Amino acid sequence: MAVKGLGEVDQEYDGSKLRIGILHARWNKTIIEALVNGAKAKLLALGVKEENIIVETVPGSFELPYGTRGFLKNQFEKGEPLDAVIPIGVLIKGSTMHFEYICDSVTHKLMDLNFQLNIPVIFGVLTCLTEEQAEARAGLIEGKMHNHGEDWGAAAVEMATKFKF
Question: Where exactly are the transmembrane stretches of this chain (predicted)?
Answer without folding.
Answer: none
